[in-house]
Amino acid sequence: SDLPLPQIEVFKQGFNQKLQEGQEKLHQMWLDWSRKSFKASGDTSSAEPEEMESLALLMACSITQQLQITCCKIVSAIQGLPSSFQDKVKQSLSTIEELHASFSAANSFQDLSNSVLNQSQRNLAVIQEYMEELLDYLKNNTPLSWLVGPFSPREEEV
């Protein structure tokens, strides 16, 4: 009766993994960038922090784009579930889209206010909670449509 669960587990693991990898990489880059910018006074390699920053922004764009794709898959996979879950996942998707748009539009971290960055961290934490809730629900309530069709989870569907 739990046929589609591995699929949702894959979604969740992929989501959490991308989130974690992204946060770790961004954190590491931020540390490197901070060290360099502190040393940069009187240093000839003062262009490097800017390169680090644009690289970090590119990465943030890439991560949010991947999360967007994952979230789209989940939206289509959970049709027929209680609307509370569908609403939360759709809300997550629009939050990620906004985040992606912010990162895409920014030329540097100076373009992103502290409140935007703090808000994005809070939002991502909320989205993770939603995924946990969804998974808990699916462990006990497999949608009938998943067992008899028409939906059959396939990774290549976007």
From TrEMBL:
One of its GO terms (cellular component) is lipid droplet. GO terms for biological process: lipid storage; positive regulation of triglyceride storage. Signal peptide: none annotated. It is found in: Lipid droplet. InterPro entries: Perilipin. Pfam families: Perilipin. Keywords: Lipid droplet. Belongs to the perilipin family. This is PLIN3 protein. The gene is Plin3_4.
